[in-house]
Write a structure and sequence with these properties.
about 650 residues, alpha/beta, six-stranded antiparallel sheet, about 20% strand, elongated
């Protein structure tokens, strides 16, 4: 086979970075070559369509790294694979791969790697840095977000399709998108593989199918993508065009123009070195302008990762509680709290002995780490399924409904699955609004999973890791309930972003540090300033003092009073007295009733309907208004009892 280049030993000082790249003299190749047997590169181009096998020359090794220069080789349309003995494999440090077929199709051969050499015009685009206290996280699956026929986009299931939906996300009010795994991985699962959700996330190992192994059966898919892969490459099957690299960069640039950051999930196997993880993250920050990462691994050294100067302003989210901030002390590490998810689910459905956990999570905040809260995520029930199903329904996964979590802290509101009863639908809507209110009124960073804002359902499947269909895709044809929930979610996001006291940078301490007569946060029961924290309590008033909206100084902003009643009966909560000239006014409710603010002999109180959250803010006393007469409220006993039974 004719060669159009000369093989030379590479300069020892230029053996890094690993991978394949063009230089002025030709093509430079560096690879890890552990084990016995000849190792080298297989080049494919117009002259070498069957592949030119080029071994590394002798004396080219330093440690386990081999390097060489193909002098005079300048075919930038070439592709390649590595070989070692009889094994042929992809370059783990490649920056681009061929796009050989559609998503979910068995590949006839191993996709070849390509050399990324062209430049990209970022048009002055820069990375976005958003502190945790100002962040509204929105998680999405690139393919599932727009793949459904109802998405209304031209390029369904692709980076281009996500780009078309950016105006929607901008209107919703989110400012940080979190993409589920979008690096290159093989979505085809090995045959006869049955996995739990935990195995799919933590233990799945990539195994490429044998060439020609198509037996006519539809392959099982790893739809989520929590597995090892080519970490430097955007997933080619998520691209509408043949240029996945350019399409991904176009998407990021469009997000930034809309004022929205882009973060990505990465699954790293436990054996992967921290140094290699750092190289991956820094590459995506520099090459793709990525603004944050959710790192999923059982063995992360977060102090080393967060301490890297290049990542000082990059969001680094993890599920490991022992994660610490590093580097120069900036709070760029965040913790995704499972405690908030399960405790708030139990509180919303009315379980006993949850009031103290509720109070803890509402104000949980830390100076050294960001606290990220969610009530529904990718791994579990959707928000609407939390109020529609008490049992998982994963039969379509083909594992006899044995996969996924058995207990989801859910409540079906009296009917399992779909219901046409108006009372059930209204209760479910109210419960979803309760969840949204608690999520956005709590101090930690809220994380919303795409579609939950308009009641997208997975039909009770809490583990759709292998479902590339209507089960896991977002259905955009909203119902009336979905439209109402969407409007309410937009309202809550707008409210949170507009008032600093609802997203404080520091922990609210519950004391009067400004000597203004009010603590930054306070809790209230039937009487103001006297909260009921007994095991049977399901009712609490929370007041945010607007004077603390600015850190370290007084700011004349409105107060907020959140009247929470997760009981199935009417309850009354006392309203604290306000500064002179201010009055409490009704702002919003998760139910249809408009609650009344009533005068008592000592103060004011608000009547909160069953399973409802009422939001009050402060307003000015109208000019010339007379002080209202205080009338003692008559004992209303048990009237207004909820329509569901006491459980």
């Amino acid at each position: 086979m004719q060669k159009t280049f000369q093989v030379k030993q590479a300069d020892r000082t230029r053996m890094y970075p690993l991978g394949v790249s063009f230089e002025e003299e030709g093509l430079r190749i560096s690879a890890v070559c552990e084990g016995a047997g000849e190792a080298g590169i297989i080049l494919y181009d117009k002259r070498h369509r069957e592949g030119a096998w080029v071994p590394f020359p002798e004396n080219c090794r330093v440690g386990a790294v081999c390097s060489m220069l193909l002098s005079g080789y300048h075919d930038r349309n070439c592709s390649y694979l590595f070989y070692r003995g009889e094994e042929i494999y992809q370059d783990p440090f490649c920056k681009r791969v061929e796009n050989p077929g559609s998503y979910g199709e068995r590949k006839p051969s191993l996709p070849r790697c390509q050399v990324m050499s062209e430049s990209y015009d970022w048009e002055k685009d820069v990375n976005v840095s958003i502190p945790y206290e100002e962040m509204i996280l929105y998680a999405l699956h690139v393919r599932g977000f727009t793949r459904h026929r109802s998405s209304g986009v031209k390029h369904k299931g692709t980076y281009a399709g996500v780009t078309e939906k950016i105006p929607y996300m901008q209107e919703l009010g989110i400012n940080m998108a979190l993409l589920m795994p979008s690096y290159e991985f093989d979505e085809i699962m090995p045959e006869n593989t049955a996995q739990t959700m935990e195995q799919a996330v933590l233990s799945y190992k990539q195994e490429l199918p044998e060439p020609g192994g198509d037996d006519g059966k539809k392959p099982r898919l790893n739809y989520w993508g929590y597995q090892p892969g080519l970490y430097y490459v955007p997933k080619s099957a998520y691209a509408y065009s043949k240029d996945a690299v350019g399409e991904f960069k176009d998407m990021v640039k469009a997000f930034h123009r809309a004022g929205i950051g882009v973060s990505m999930q990465f699954y790293f196997p436990p054996e992967m070195r921290t140094a290699d993880i750092l190289d991956v993250l820094k590459y995506w920050v520099l090459e793709y302008h990525i603004d944050g990462f959710h790192l999923m691994s059982a063995n992360l050294s977060m102090d080393l990762i967060a301490g890297d100067p290049l990542l000082a302003e990059t969001m680094l989210l993890t599920g490991e509680w022992n994660a610490r901030r590093g580097g120069d002390g900036k709070r760029n590490v965040g913790w995704l709290s499972d405690g908030f998810l399960y405790d708030m689910r139990r509180f919303i459905k009315g379980d006993d002995n949850m009031i103290n956990q509720f109070l803890f999570h509402v104000r949980e905040n830390k100076d050294e780490i960001g606290i990220v809260n969610s009530i529904a995520r990718w791994d579990g029930f959707r928000l609407v399924d939390l109020v529609s199903y008490e049992r998982k329904h994963n039969e379509e996964n083909g594992e006899d409904n044995k996969d996924g979590m058995d207990y989801n802290c859910s409540w079906n509101c009296g009917v399992e699955g779909k219901s046409r009863r108006k009372s059930i639908q209204e209760l479910r809507l109210r419960q979803m609004k309760n969840a949204v209110t608690i999520l956005f009124m709590s101090q930690g960073t809220p994380l919303l999973y795409s579609g939950d804002e308009f009641a997208n359902t997975q039909g009770g499947n809490n583990n759709p890791y292998c479902q590339d269909n209507d089960v896991a895709w977002i259905k955009w044809n909203q119902t009336g309930m979905g439209r109402e929930l969407l409007a309410y979610t937009k309202f809550m996001i707008t409210l949170r972003k507009a008032h600093g006291i609802l997203h404080s940078k520091t922990l609210l301490r519950g004391i009067d540090t400004l000597s203004c007569g009010f603590p930054d946060i306070s809790f209230h029961g039937r009487e103001a300033w006297r909260p009921d924290t007994s095991p049977a309590s399901r009712c609490m008033g929370i007041m945010y003092c607007g004077f603390y909206a600015a850190e370290g100084e007084r700011e004349d902003e409105c107060f907020f009073y959140i009247a929470v009643n997760m009981h199935w009966e009417v309850n009354y909560l006392g309203l604290p007295k306000l500064p002179k000239g201010k009055i409490w006014i009704y702002r919003a409710s998760t139910g249809k009733e408009i609650p009344k603010i009533e005068e008592t002999a000592a103060s004011q109180e608000i009547c909160v309907p069953p399973r409802t959250i009422v939001l009050c803010t402060t307003g000015n006393v109208p000019a010339g208004a007379q002080k209202p007469l205080r009338k003692k409220r008559q004992n209303k006993g048990n009237q207004g009892k909820g329509d569901e039974k006491d459980r």
